[in-house]
Specification:
three-stranded antiparallel sheet, Heat Shock Protein 90, binds adenosine-5'-diphosphate, single chain
Length: about 475
């Protein structure tokens, strides 16, 4: 209850004046009516105090001027209705002046006390808003990755807290002009930014901004900028360390993959020159050299493609392509005995892509599918789905466990063999397929149930004809 009354007293704004006038008249009437029964108990002169309560209420809630009005009306009503001669104003009666004086003194005292309380309450609210603003600014600056991203929100929040049309926090130095006032945000010697607010604000608002907001904002901004710099440095160091580790891994994998065909070719070459080699054996050794040489050349092509993709140098030559033709070209690169069935929707829209790059990606998927499904039928399906052409390469091979599905698109990743007869490749095929599909604005993913097969899904943006 006490808190409730205090709360009402300390509220920032006064109630409306019209309500004050109405309450004044009501209170004067009530007090006048109250005096009648009390007259039976005591002398009339002492009952002037009844009006004091009304004077206190009015001057506390509506301030001095309405308090004065309440005092005058109370004195008049007391005089007219209660002081003898009743029903007439007797200005000369000293009791009247004493009552009026007392009322005015009480009005002045209670309105001053309530004004003071109100001012204190308003100041407390302002301070709390400023503390909230500082806390929120710290959160915005330190929680987000980029300081610049946070500045717009801080400006908006600051404008709301100070009831300004707008406020802007900018990094570095910005000068003011006839429409904008620039407040420097400096931490120590260094200028970290500028708070820009509309020109022509009240002096009290500008001094509150410069004394209470600017120092905290400058300090927070400096800490956030420093943190951003340290994070950037750490990221750079970490990425250098990782790229170094990747290079080492690549070198290790490559040297192994390059060495085996070269060793096979050297051995075959030496064997060909041995005395007593029959024409049949020479033929076989020649075949081996060609096979290993082809493997080597393919590996070199893969490495070149991968390094181009890595350096973002594999710029696609975009042109309108028929998906059916790309699938046919990819199929033509497969061994003649591959069991592949192609099902393409009749009204498939063309795609805008680099024909050779998409063909290369699909050829890699087809090669894996036929290799891992060991003679079982592979199905290639293409259909249009909401602005995309979706191509699925579905096999009924061993499938890929969930742990490997997340990694098979990484260069050199080879899932541990579950198909003993299949010689796994260099681990570059899917990385290259993913690289080419993505540089062409497409997406690639795998869906697989171990034991049942895998489905590699490629989506490319379709060229949609505008409606006539
Ligand atoms: P690789 O040359 O070893 O096939 P890829 O990058 O093409 O290299 O494939 C990476 C790994 O993904 C393979 O080692 C294999 O374990 C797995 N994989 C790819 N395609 C299939 C598939 N269709 N069925 C089962 N496993 C597959």
């Amino acid at each position: 209850m006490r808190n409730g009354v205090v709360f009402i007293l300390l509220r920032g704004r006064r109630p409306p004046l019209v309500a004050g006038l109405a309450v004044t008249f009501v209170l004067v009437s009530i007090c006048t009516a109250l005096v009648y029964p009390l007259k039976q108990l005591t002398t009339v002169s002492s009952l002037g105090v009844v009006y004091l309560l009304g004077v206190v209420v009015i001057s506390t809630f509506w301030g001095l001027w309405l308090g004065v009005l309440m005092s005058v009306l109370s004195a008049a009503a007391f005089n007219f209705f209660h002081l003898p001669p009743v029903g007439r104003f007797t200005i000369a009666d000293s009791r009247n002046w004493v009552a009026l004086g007392a009322f005015l003194v009480v009005a002045l005292a209670s309105s001053s006390v309530s004004e003071l309380a109100r001012a204190r309450a308003a100041e407390a609210v302002r301070r709390r808003a400023e503390a909230d603003l500082t806390a929120e600014t710290a959160q915005l600056l330190l929680e987000r990755a980029g300081v610049e991203d946070a500045l717009a929100s801080i400006g908006r929040r600051l404008a709301a807290a100070f009831e300004l049309p707008w406020a802007l926090v900018a990094l570095g130095e910005t000068s003011g002009d006839s429409r904008r006032e620039a407040l420097a945000l400096s931490a120590g010697e260094a200028r970290v930014g500028t708070l820009v607010v509309p020109a022509g604000l009240q002096g009290s608002v500008v001094s509150r901004l410069s004394e209470r907001v600017v120092p905290a904002l400058a300090a927070l901004l400096q800490v956030a900028l420093e943190r951003e710099r340290l994070v950037a440095e750490a990221v750079q160091t970490e990425s250098l360390r990782r790229s170094d580790a990747v290079k080492t891994a690549v070198l290790r994998a490559v040297s192994h993959d390059l060495r085996s065909p070269v060793t096979a070719m050297i051995t075959a070459g030496a064997a060909v020159r041995a005395p007593g080699v029959t024409p049949h054996e020479r033929d076989e050794l020649g075949g081996l050299v060609v096979e290993e040489g082809t493997r080597l050349s393919r590996l070199i092509d893969d490495l070149l493609d991968l390094s181009k993709l890595d350096a973002h140098a594999a710029v696609p030559r975009l042109a309108e392509c028929s998906v059916e033709e790309v699938i046919d070209a990819a199929l033509a690169a497969q061994p003649a005995d591959s069991m592949v069935e192609v099902r393409v929707d009749p009204d498939l829209p063309p795609v805008r892509a680099d024909f050779a790059q998409v063909e290369r990606a699909l050829a890699n998927l087809l090669e894996n599918a036929t290799r891992y499904s060991e003679g079982k039928l592979v199905v290639v399906r293409a259909r249009s789905v909401g602005g995309w052409v979706v191509i699925r390469v579905v096999d009924r091979g061993p499938g890929i466990p969930a742990v490997d599905q997340a990694r098979i698109f990484e260069p050199f990743y080879r899932a541990p063999g579950r198909t003993p007869n299949v010689i796994s490749g260099s681990g570059l095929g899917l990385a290259i397929a993913k690289g080419f599909i993505e540089t062409n604005g497409g997406r690639i993913r795998v869906e697989s149930v171990p034991g049942q097969g895998s489905s590699f899904v490629v989506a490319l943006p379709a060229i949609v004809e505008p409606e006539p």
